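To: structure desk
From: M.T.
Subject: fold request, one chain
Message: Could you run this one when you get a chance? Sequence is below, nothing fancy, just the single chain.
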Amino acid sequence: MRWQVYGSNGQMHASPEPVIARFPRRAPADWIRNRRVKSIVDPRRAVAPVNCHHFAYRGGEVAVDETGERVRPIPRPRFKKELRPLYRLLGPAVRYFDPFAADSTSSKISVEQLRINHYPIKSREEFARKSRMMEGTRRYDSVDYFAYHDRNDVFDPILSRYLPHLGRTSSLTQSSVSPPG
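Reply: Done. C-alpha cells follow.
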C-alpha cells in the first residue's frame, strides 16, 4: 500500500489538535516519496523481510499493489549519499530521485483502495524535537529533510470526516486553511 506525504501547512508550533486537522495539505500524488510502500503480508507466503518495506516470498512470488502491478524493491545505489548535498540546491524540484530511500519498481501510485497518510515533519517545533532525538542518523545528514518533505501542494483533508468521532469538530474547508508561506 502507498502513502501520501503531508507537509507542515506552514505551522511553526505544536498544537493539541489532531494531526488530521492540523495538516490537510500534501505533496502531489505522483511525487517520488509517495512511491514508497508499506506491506500487508500473509505470513504463510513470506520467507523473510528484505527491508522494512519489502518481503521475500515463497516460490518466487512477488508483492503487488492495489492495482495488481508487481512491486519489487530497487536496491539503494551507494552513490546516493554523495549526491544528497545537491538537494540543498535542487530541493523538492527533483521528481525522479529520492535521496532518502530505495525506490520501488512499480510505476503507478494508486491510493484509491488503501493509503497511509504520512506526516514525517509536522510543525517546525515538532520536527526540531524529532531531529534532536534522531541526531547523528543518516536520515538527517546533508539534506534539509524538513524542506524536502514540506510539500503542501494539494489540499486533501480526506480524514477530517473522522474528527467528530474524536470528539473534535473541524471547520476545515478550502478557505479556512491558509496556504503555507
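Reply (cont.): The chain is about 15% helix and 10% strand. Let me know if you need anything else for the meeting.
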